[in-house]
Amino acid sequence: LRPVMAAPEGLSEKIAESIEHAKEACAEDPASGECVASWDEVEELSAASSHARDRKKEEDPLETYCKDNPETDECRTYED
Amino acid sequence: MAVCKMNTVLHTPNSMSSISTPTKAQMGFNQNHVFLYTTSGKKTNTCKFRSGVITCSGETIVIGLAADSGCGKSTFMRRLTSVFGGAASPPKGGNPDSNTLISDTTTVICLDDYHSLDRTGRKQKGVTALDPRANDFDLMYEQVKALKDGKAVEKPIYNHVSGLLDPPELIIPPKILVIEGLHPMYDERVRDLLDFSIYLDISNEVKFAWKIQRDMAERGHSLETIKASIEARKPDFDAYIDPQKQYADAVIEVLPTQLIPDDNEGKVLRVKLIMKEGVQYFNPVYLFDEGSTISWIPCGRKLTCSYPGIKFAYGPDAYFSHEVSVLEMDGQFDRLDELVYVESHLSNISTKFFGEITQQMLKHADFPGSNNGTGLFQTIVGLKIRDLFEQITTNKVSAPFEAAKA
């Protein structure tokens, strides 16, 4: 149906590409709809990339491991 | 209301009932949904499945949050859902690029999902996402109305990575529905559905500083490209997004500090919380004495502050010819005792116990803005929304719901 995982890795290439495109689009006419829409695309991709980075930053290596292996010595927690 | 927790796809059934049904999806996609729902112990409301529609009795409270992209909407949302307890997470098993966040009481939907034009479509027409022509306000109105009336909807998903409109996801009416995005108060019909509305107003200087922090490390970006992107979007922003702030019940304005002359780093901030007077179920916060004009520097014998210190201001004002109360904080906290000290001098903050604001802020000390007025005022607004929600739920039987919007 659609790709299973979002690929934030490919995003930085996309951003660089869309910045180039926006610069070209604005070289002709800085007030054109095409120019404005191109910079809007840059903003959208930059925001998506920053959200992806934040999500990654939040991942704690031990917690990620413990999600998959809750029975190991490092991960076992008892309420009482 | 939010008794229904939903999982769109095959998840190990651990709840009370599970129904498999082919749902009629919009946008020409056909999907099979397996959803599970549980009813909470309190039984204030229940969800029923009848003839292809899930309806939940009880009312959903709708909150609107407007802000430009990259202005801290997601941080605000995390603070808000935290006040209600429980972490918010994307719908389990659904589209990995879904913009929706679901917690026990709250569902946050991103209004980008109502784009009528995808990324390619906008480029062909030469319009930005800020332009009303790129958004389907009819569908937005219909679906928010349906959710408010307790009916589940099939909401499209705008994929921010691919820039395409993905097949829809099922949204079940929650107790509190938050619609966040660029245009929650743009369309009059949608605006009238909101029980409370917030606008995050970030000044140009601060927006620029924040975007530099966000984007400078990104390949291809430079000071010039960041500036160009902000300037290109500015005419549409001024025409379609900014005017919405006049309808907001609370506006959080973020400005450069006045404590440091010529500061443009955007690290020390002057933040204003502008609260509309006369909104039902919403009593503005005040400092020392309600309705007076006060300037307060908490640093002194009881509190040591490092440079540049902290300065508060409070007073009545006019905002788009509405009567408002404004609470302002300039500077940043170094230590926790400062915040408890400040909290103890604020009134009408709708906390349940002494020190709740401080506790909430400590819980998320790693979020951006936790050491300045943005975090403080976002937390206060979160508590105000909880208060509003509780008042509406208790008064629901006696008072007509429409009265919530004065």
From TrEMBL, chain B:
Signal peptide: none annotated. Keywords: ATP-binding, Calvin cycle, Chloroplast, Disulfide bond, Kinase, Nucleotide-binding, Photosynthesis, Plastid, Transferase, Transit peptide. Its main location: plastid. It catalyses: D-ribulose 5-phosphate + ATP = D-ribulose 1,5-bisphosphate + ADP + H(+). Residues 62-260 form the Phosphoribulokinase/uridine kinase domain. Pathway: Carbohydrate biosynthesis; Calvin cycle. GO terms for biological process: reductive pentose-phosphate cycle. Coiled coil: none annotated. GO terms for cellular component: chloroplast. GO terms for molecular function: ATP binding; phosphoribulokinase activity; protein homodimerization activity. Its EC number is 2.7.1.19. It is found in: Plastid, Chloroplast. SUPFAM superfamilies: P-loop containing nucleoside triphosphate hydrolases. Belongs to the phosphoribulokinase family. PANTHER family: URIDINE KINASE. This is Phosphoribulokinase. It comes from Artemisia annua.
